[in-house]
Design brief:
Blueprint: H1 8-16, E1 22-25, H2 29-36, E2 41-45, H3 56-66
């Protein structure tokens, strides 16, 4: 059985703590969509790390298969 990630708990925590809004640091559009309902997103800040020969394939996969917002230097 394939397990799907859920972000319901992540969205509930700011609501329980009565946080007005948050700045979300992520490249993952599914996190933005999941938290948009129930949490006021003041800003979405992309997180960019350096591209190396060791992580390039992983970042390409995240961009191409999962729609992550990544700057891969024109690749």
């Amino acid at each position: 059985m394939k397990r799907r990630r859920t972000r319901k708990v992540a969205a509930a925590i700011p609501m329980l703590k009565k946080v007005g809004d948050i700045r979300l640091i992520t490249n993952n559009p599914s996190k933005v969509d999941a938290l948009r309902y129930g949490v006021k997103l003041r800003d979405v800040v992309p997180l960019q790390t350096g591209l190396t020969e060791y992580n390039e394939r992983c970042f390409e996969t995240k961009r191409d298969r999962f729609g992550h917002h990544l700057d891969l230097g024109g690749k």
